[in-house]
Specification:
The protein contains 3 helices and 12 strands, in the order ββββββαββββαββα. The chain is mainly beta. It folds into 2 domains: about 110 residues, OB fold (Dihydrolipoamide Acetyltransferase, E2P) (Beta Barrel); about 110 residues, Nucleic acid-binding proteins (OB fold (Dihydrolipoamide Acetyltransferase, E2P), Beta Barrel), CATH 2.40.50. Strands 1, 2, 3, 4, 5, 6, 7, 8, 9, 10, 11 and 12 form a 12-stranded mixed β-sheet that branches. The radius of gyration is 18 Å and the shape is globular.
Length: about 220
């Protein structure tokens, strides 16, 4: 029987490897590695996205710096405990990878280098705000089911008309979103006045669908995150 939860979180990214692949951890005898992928936007900027991949997928594969790759997988989350506080960590979990070698093919694929689809549930009350320039934004946290009774908690951001619609969503509402994964630098100030630059990852929503007549509510969702 096919597990349809694999279809609720689908990612495709194409980009350039920016660092040497590094061993991350081992689970049930299987090794996993991490690296950063530079994914271009339609503008002149780029997103630097973290990738986690199984050793099974990269046997005899040369993933050297500056190589271009196409990755299919999921955007996954996990909690990391730092100084007794929990921090949500996101990574693209690769399920398939392909090295791109032909320059013309790379240019063609880079026309659409960053795509994500999520099918999940609102996990915290949306936060609606406007920027100093008048742009409307809503911040969402979407819970997406994963096999083995696990879930991923994905921060999402919507704009304009979508932001106004998302402001009215309730915890437990069922939505589908399409967009791209983006990286964003921000500065965190500590009590000792130290300022540290950090990177946040989120899904920038380009299209959203509200699933009506679905009463599946994740009432304990806020407690789990």
């Amino acid at each position: 029987m096919v597990d349809r939860t694999l279809d609720t979180n689908v990612v495709k990214i194409i980009g350039r490897i920016t660092e040497t692949i590094k061993f991350s951890h081992e689970m049930y005898g299987e090794g996993f590695y991490n690296f950063q992928l530079e994914v271009p936007r339609l503008s002149d900027s780029v997103d630097i996205l973290p990738v986690t991949i199984s050793e099974r997928l990269i046997i005899n594969m040369d993933l050297s710096i500056h190589s271009y790759v196409e990755i299919y997988g999921q955007l996954r989350s996990y909690n990391r405990y730092i100084n007794s506080s929990s921090r949500l960590i996101l990574t693209v979990f690769a399920r398939d990878i392909r090295i791109l070698e032909d320059g013309e093919e790379i240019n063609e694929l880079l026309r659409s280098p960053n795509e994500i689809y999520l099918n999940g549930y609102i996990c915290k009350a949306p936060i609606y705000r406007t920027t100093p320039f008048g742009r409307e934004i809503s911040d969402l946290l979407v819970a997406v089911n994963r096999p083995y009774n696990k879930s991923d908690y994905i921060p999402c951001i919507s704009w304009g008309r979508n932001a106004r619609f998302c402001e009215k969503l309730l915890v437990g509402d069922h939505i589908k979103v399409w967009g791209r994964i983006q990286s964003r630098e921000y500065q965190k100030k500590y009590n000792n006045e130290k300022v540290e630059t950090k990177v946040a990852y989120e899904v920038s929503i380009s299209k959203l669908e509200y699933i009506e007549n679905d009463n599946n509510r994740l009432e304990d969702c806020e407690k789990e995150v």
